[in-house]
Amino acid sequence: MTSITATQTLDGAEPVSGLKAQLRRAERLKKIKAMLLVAPLALFLIVAFVLPISSMLWRSIDNSEINQVMPQTAAQILKWDGTGIPDEAVFAALAEELRESREDGGLGRIGRRLNYEDPSFRSLLTRTIRKLPATTEVSWTDELTGIDARWNDTETWHVLLRAAPTTTDRYLLASLDMERGDDGKITRVEPNQQLYVQVFKRTLVIAGGVTLICLFLGFPLAYLLATLPPAKSNILLIFVLLPFWTSLLVRTAAWIVLLQSGGLVNAGLMWTGIIDSPMQLVFNRIGVFFAMVHVLLPFMILPLYSVMKGVSPTYQRAAVSLGAHPFAAFWQVYVPQTISGIAAGTILVFIMALGYYITPALVGGPSDQMVSYYVAYYTNTTNNWGMAAALGALLLFVTLLLYLVYHKLVNKRQLIRS
């Protein structure tokens, strides 16, 4: 009897165990399929987003030019205590690798890097290479100091010492209008050399102003689109989307034509008698705001419209029927339901405005250029990738920080209201 029961139990357990194995296989197969479906998107994000940002962050601290072209000189000068001038070994390594750098084309790289520290350093290297003796059986200390007296100056060697490590905080500090002295202390640069902190403030002010204007103009328009009958709202929505069919460059150039002294805006204001002479509406902050708001307004309207379309009007009507003033019902009942759309629209417009380059460059004046202008300048004109990457990294950090603060405030407000 006992053996029959055991057999029945085993026979009954076999199908259950087999079913569990099949379920596990089915779940595993679903996970594999899901991963395969997501893999192309993940690969695209890695290639188009993660790798470029990682490369930018690395370039902001990369200082490998001297180590790659003149490794012996870098290794020797890092042993120097920074007082007086280095010993003969450093002079010898420098002379040998200077000669080699002329042959393999590395002189341009190290000259460009050292010019960031001292604008005249490349000419010093070129003059030294040209006058190097052919023989190696000489005192290189005497030879180099005889070629140019600057090799007998401690500050000249401090320039090489600052460029010798493989990583540096020079670019990040310069982006904050700061520098590290020869004693290792971080100090602010001279007032006449301070630039980038003011540029970051200007960028935040312009981006914030454009965002507020877009919210002020976009909210009532999105509300109108959401409350009108579908036939009318669809026609208006086409006009909202119409700017997407025109090139950004064309729209920016059109604003230059409209806002210039003899443009349509000034002509209309003078014809109506509002002004007596043309106003300066372009190549200043006013023109920047006009053009950027025109370009970014649809990015505010669309998120607001998508949220407002799902808000039922019955809550507002109920509040009015219970005695609330229509404006109070709108502000206290309807607006809180659109917070997610406001948050999405403002974050989208603000982040896009932070990185704008073409519009301020064409429509704005010298005092209206944003961080992106200087990133483009260092990338395309001076080939100072370290400085461009540092400015881009700080802009990314500021964007993420403001997004986290804004996200926290919005969530806190929603929790309080709920």
TrEMBL record:
Keywords: Cell membrane, Membrane, Transmembrane, Transmembrane helix, Transport. Its main location: membrane. It is found in: Cell membrane. One of its GO terms (cellular component) is plasma membrane. CDD domains: TM_PBP2. It comes from the Bacteria. The chain crosses the membrane at residues 34-58, 204-226, 233-250, 286-306, 342-365, 385-406. The keyword Glycosyltransferase does not apply. It is a multi-pass membrane protein. GO terms for biological process: transmembrane transport. Pfam families: BPD_transp_1. Residues 200-406 form the ABC transmembrane type-1 domain. Belongs to the binding-protein-dependent transport system permease family. CysTW subfamily. This is ABC transporter permease.
